[in-house]
Amino acid sequence: MHCPFCRHPDSRVIDSRTSDDGLSIRRRRQCPECGGRFSTIETASLNVIKRSGVIEPFSREKVMSGVRKACQGRPVTDGDLAVLAQRVEEAVRQTGASQVDTNEIGLAILGPLRELDEVAYLRFASVYQAFESLEDFETAISLLRADHGRPSPRVPLED
């Protein structure tokens, strides 16, 4: 790690702490050359492989944006969406993969979204499960009715 003050190519870690969400580490460093102190934040990279083949960093904001469309007109707050995006990121990171397909992220959204709002869940599921007919909607609604009152099953992520 280069010192931001004198550009010395090395530094010494004085203190390390995990962030509140557990997804990053804050390190306090000191330069052995000039004695300057500075902080760094380290996170494990998580990349998304889009349908076009383009690879980009995972973004909670993009998860929230996609789900927000399904939640239009529903009693869902931005705070609810932020918690959902955090849960999705945690689920995807637990797979241990450094790259995931957008489809896997969409599937990881389904469980938490179903718990949050069933109508938004149906809207979102119709895209990510590629509903092609009214029968697909009827099947999904029947499953919701059968499971109503019971905890929703978690959709496992595939490697």
Topology (SSEs and partners):
Layout: E1 12-18, E2 24-30, E3 37-43, E4 47-49, E5 55-57, H1 60-70, H2 78-94, E6 99-101, H3 102-116, H4 118-128, H5 134-147
Parallel strand pairs: 4-6
Antiparallel strand pairs: 1-2, 2-3, 4-5
Determine the number of helices (DSSP H or I, runs of at least 4 residues): 5
Low-confidence stretches: 155-159
Oligomer: single chain
Largest sheet composition: 3 strands, antiparallel
Radius of gyration: 21 Å
The first-to-last residue Cα distance is: 33 Å
Strand order of the largest sheet: 1-2-3
Helix and strand element order: EEEEEHHEHHH
Structural class: alpha+beta
User: Using DSSP, what is the number of strands?
Assistant: 6
How confident is the prediction overall: mean pLDDT?
A: 88
Helix % is: 40-55%
Proportion of residues in β-strands: 15-25%
Described by the principal axes of the CA atoms, the overall outline is elongated
List the defining traits of the structure above:
single chain, 159 residues, alpha+beta, 3-stranded antiparallel sheet, 3-stranded mixed sheet, 43% helix, elongated
How would you characterize the overall build of this protein?
By secondary structure, the protein is α+β, with helices and mostly antiparallel strands. It has helices spanning 60-70, 78-94, 102-116, 118-128, 134-147; strands at 12-18, 24-30, 37-43, 47-49, 55-57, 99-101. The chain contains five helices and six strands, in the order E-E-E-E-E-H-H-E-H-H-H. Strand 4 (47-49) and strand 5 form a beta hairpin. Helix 1 (60-70) crosses helix 2 and helix 3 (102-116) packs antiparallel against helix 4. The chain starts with 11 loop residues before the first strand and ends in a 12-residue tail after the last helix.
